[in-house]
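hey can u check if this looks right to u? its 139 residues, i copy pasted from the old doc so theres a chance i mangled smth
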Amino acid sequence: HGSILAGLAISFFVQYSIAPNKIEASDLPMLDRSNQWFNANAGIFVAIVNLAFVVVDFVCVVLLAQLFVFHMKLRKEGLTTYAYIVRDGQRKRVAAQKKMEFERRRITALQQAEREGEIIRKWMLTAAGCPCVGENLCR
């Protein structure tokens, strides 16, 4: 479907670019029909519409190719789509639990450093609460 539309759009652009060279309208039926739209010279409008459809078709083909590759990967792993979704949800839950455990240990260590008066350790643990710094300081 997309290749047919692309072919029509290319054909139209070729005819539209040849038209200023005074070729007779009978030799360019697509351009002639497009210029009769709304009883005006609407050739550029038709060209823009064709281009928009070609772009939409290209985006759809890219998305379909991505979906196809994803399902080939699932097939290679021997998973169904449902099994993949369940596995992905489980991975996300485990990652969230690890993050919560890390944060809990950081807060406990921060409270202990505060009680013991360790200013530098307290500062490092406070800075470790920042997303970009945390995982590097608390190791």
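Residues 81-116 form the longest helix (36 residues).
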